From TrEMBL:
HAMP domain segment(s): 179-231
Alphabetic keyword roster: ATP-binding, Cell membrane, Kinase, Membrane, Nucleotide-binding, Phosphoprotein, Transferase, Transmembrane, Transmembrane helix, Two-component regulatory system
PROSITE patterns, alphabetized: HAMP (PS50885), HIS_KIN (PS50109)
Database matches in InterPro entries: HAMP_dom, HATPase_C_sf, HATPase_dom, His_kinase_dom, HisK_dim/P_dom, HisK_dim/P_sf, Sig_transdc_His_kin-like_C
Pfam families, A to Z: HAMP, HATPase_c, HisKA
Native species: Paenibacillus filicis
Catalytically driven reaction(s): ATP + protein L-histidine = ADP + protein N-phospho-L-histidine
Name the UniProt record assigns to this protein: histidine kinase
Subcellular location: Cell membrane
Keyword Phosphoprotein: yes
């Protein structure tokens, strides 16, 4: 940019200077010619009544010489110089060129450059000397070219200084423009180099509103996106690692037990009468592994958006009554009673019946698991102002600590870890699946719990009557 700007300015100013110089020279010379022709005609007016040189004649010539600062020659019809305005009269008797004489005798002024007889070059013009149609000869005026050449030289010098000033100015402007462009580009280059090695904390600080500023903003936005993607990638890798570790841990326990029992049975270490008990343990461990695989499969389908819901109007009250009857025997084994509160309005939810039942199954199982010699209360009520059905599963169990309440939705997290009472048969995936299914229904879930008092899970599912006939998005559409 710097070189091209200087070269462009230099060529432009040189071309302009050359044209101005040529036109100025032609203008100065033409103006001088016109001026000298007028002066020569004034001399002719003064001497046109005198046909022979005399002392008075010469005095007039010297007067005009001083007035016009021009040497004056007078020549006759043959071109012989008869007198001059100079005192030494060194040119008297010499002959003016025939071409000039002929041009003057025809009544036309002649113009040429004269150097012979002078110390310096002269611009010379000749006009007829005479009155009316009588021509006695010619009048020649010589003006030094030095003054005109100096004027032209001064003009060219001025153009040169303007050119140098223009080059200096263009150098400054081009330097600033180059700096203003290359500096942010260097910043972008350095930032790109850091981004290339995975440093997404780098940001480009450019406040200009031009194209480079827009580029910097775009790159900063890109870096933010890359940082977010990189963070999500690391989190995903960590989740995958934790998931595999948890699955391995969950499978290792039943497999180890099954392997030990099978080896004991194979080696004949167990008596015939006790084998049925060990077969039952092996069977239960197999069921536990099967449930774990089913839960993992469901969770993976939910996270991969592979489950589509069948949207229907679901009678939540009837579903709770059915589940209450279903789980009552299991609850009685733990000395727990299930109460299903009846709502006269019998609210209907807009949901997938099978998946809603799966949600409630997991919540009720969870309540039974952690409640002994207590009560479990199932309740559903419509909230038209919120456009949802509120389903509550409340127990009087051991409760959940405040620090665990934010973790119970994580995969393989077990609230009973570290507690004195152990509950086998749990995979730690139930509540994670519940949350995914609730969100799939465009609903929400939260828990309220106190240690030693119990827990209450509140599920909000869209109310059927408040749908306004808008079909909710399926999982594939949401993805």
């Amino acid at each position: 940019m710097l070189t091209s700007s200087i070269v462009t300015v230099l060529l432009g100013l040189c071309a302009v200077g050359l044209v101005i110089s040529l036109f100025a020279k032609a203008y100065i010379v033409d103006s001088k010619n016109d001026e000298m022709i007028r002066q020569a005609k004034q001399v002719n007016l003064a001497i046109q009544n005198q046909t022979e040189p005399s002392d008075g004649f010469k005095e007039q010539l010297r007067f005009f010489d001083q007035a016009f600062d021009s040497r004056i020659w007078i020549f006759d019809l043959n071109g012989n110089i008869v007198t001059t305005s100079s005192k030494d009269e060194v040119n008297v008797g010499k002959v003016v060129s025939t071409e000039v004489v002929n041009q003057v005798l025809h009544g036309e002024p002649a113009i040429w450059n004269q150097s012979e007889g002078f110390k310096e070059g002269m611009l010379s013009i000749a006009v007829p000397w005479g009155k009316d149609n009588d021509v006695y000869g010619g009048i020649v005026l010589h003006a030094p070219l030095k003054g005109m050449n100096e004027t032209i030289a001064q003009l060219r010098e001025t153009i040169l200084w303007v050119t140098l000033l223009g080059i200096f100015f263009s150098f400054g402007v081009s330097s600033y423009l180059s700096w203003s462009i290359t500096r942010p580009i260097q910043q972008i280059d350095k930032a790109a180099a850091k981004i290339a090695v995975g440093n997404y904390s780098e940001r480009i600080q450019i406040d200009s509103k031009d194209e480079i500023g827009e580029l910097a903003t775009t790159i900063n936005h890109m870096v933010e996106q890359l940082a977010r993607v990189d963070l999500e990638k690391r989190q995903l890798n960590q989740l995958r690692h934790d998931f595999l570790a948890n699955v391995s841990h969950e499978l290792r326990t039943p497999l180890t037990a099954m392997q030990g029992f099978l080896e004991a049975l194979q080696d004949g270490l167990i008596e015939e009468g006790a084998r049925e008990k060990y077969y039952e343990i092996l069977y239960n461990e197999t069921l536990h592994m099967n449930r774990l695989v089913d839960d993992i499969t469901d969770l993976m389908k939910l996270e991969n958006k592979e489950i589509d819901l069948v949207w229907l109007a679901v009678d939540v009250q009837a579903m709770l009554s059915k589940l209450s009857f279903k789980f009552q025997p299991e609850a009685e084994l733990r000395g727990t009673v299930i109460h299903c509160l009846v709502d006269e309005n019998s609210p209907q939810a807009h949901a997938d019946p099978d998946r809603l039942e799966q949600i409630l199954n997991n919540l009720i199982k969870n309540a039974i698991k952690f409640t002994e010699n207590g009560t479990i209360e199932l309740k559903a009520m419509a909230i038209p102002s919120e456009g949802c059905v509120l389903i509550t599963v409340t127990d009087t169990g051991i409760g959940i600590s405040p620090e665990d309440q934010g973790l119970i939705w994580e995969r393989f997290f077990k609230v009973e870890r570290g507690r004195p009472v152990k509950h086998k048969g749990s995979s730690g995936l139930g509540l994670a699946i519940v949350r995914e299914l609730v969100e799939l229904h465009n609903g929400s879930i939260r828990v309220r719990s106190e240690l030693g008092i119990g827990s209450a899970f509140e599920v909000r599912i869209p109310l059927y009557d408040s749908r306004q006939y808008v079909q909710p998005l399926s999982l594939g559409e949401r993805a």
